[in-house]
Amino acid sequence: MNLNKLTPIINKPNGAALMPLVVFLCLYLVTSIIVNDFYKVPITVAFIVASIYAVATTKGLSLNDRILQYSQGAANKNIMMMIWIFIMAGAFAQSAKAMGAIDATVNLTLHLLPDNLLLASIFLASCFISLSIGTSVGTIVALVPVAVGIASKTDVSIPFMTALVIGGAFFGDNLSFISDTTIAATRTQGCQMKDKFKMNMMIALPAAVLVFVYYIIYGNNVETTAPAANIEWGKVIPYIIVLATAIAGVNVMLVLLLGLISTGIIGMAYGAFDFFGWFGSMGQGITGMGELIIITLMAGGMLELIRFNGGVDYILHKLTKKVNGKRGAEFSIAGLVSLANMCTANNTIAIITVGPLAAEIADEYKIDKRRSASILDTFSCVIQGVIPYGAQILIAAELASISPLNIMEFLYYPLVLCAFAILSIIFRIPKTV
Predict the structure, then answer these.
(1) pTM of structure
(2) Which end of the chain has fewer beta carbons closer than 10 Å to its terminal beta carbon, N or C?
(3) Is the Cβ–Cβ distance between 382 and 418 less than 8 Å?
């Protein structure tokens, strides 16, 4: 077996290479909609069937080498980094729950905010935190448990509250100066971050304001169904530490580690658990992330075979074949990064994949590089914000103990952002040099 021959080789553009993704979506999404039960088909089963199909239809490699190629996709450094975050997030979330940090934070929120501003405030907090820390995953890990706790004490559904946090998280992921997507988009297009930020803000801010106003109006109907208990201020400290260090720009792994240590110290001080009880809660949280980790590994492997078999190249070839005019060129850039994102389930990787080609299209049709960078970042965040197998929705669903498909109907911000981005291309707004 020659390991060097596997990863560098990509077959010629091949539309059939996209079929594993079609198999997954049909088996998981379409079947769930038809039978009107989002729990009927486990997402793990949908991925294993699609993965088997991907391995079986891969050409030019022995069965052993196909499985190795699949495994290399699963072991991608970005996949592994997500898994480490999932493990730390599971340990922190469960230990925070066991020592009462989530309940204390929920009670504090209910004390400070009137019922009619709960939704708008959570959305605004999610926007602000993600803008500050530059990561949607970190924001979701920090806020979803609190949002779920608030939902349990109000008449708002858990999927609705979870989707609200996800929407705000992608606002910051799209705009933040320290976001991976911002760095990738500006580097591949050769423009300044501040210029791309200004361009993006003209699209993202109106979308966020519109959704924010909707949450204010919708929030007038929200009522607290359970009175907030007395606040145990000390138990709020782990979340204060997590949010403060995240906003300060500390690495997300270190943020979760500091939060985890604080839950242990404060939990034992309050008598919520002893030392071994703390270890037990951490172990339970890590074990609870098992399905999410398996899904992430299978998604990485399946999407790697799609890339290897020429699926991504097929998309690049087809969408750039008949580009005509600036609007057509901009729509082709949007389509390229959107489809690449569907095939990689990672908005940063999607931007890196199609960025050089987008830069060539921008040069040929005299599109402002700030504009092409904005389109890349915006549409990648839109797709990442709505695919049920993306890391953000998967971890949010895991933390909320619901199906990813339950969340999708409430993902207002990504859809509104998509509408504003499309309108900006149609009407050439904002005007660029």
Answers:
(1) 0.83
(2) C
(3) yes
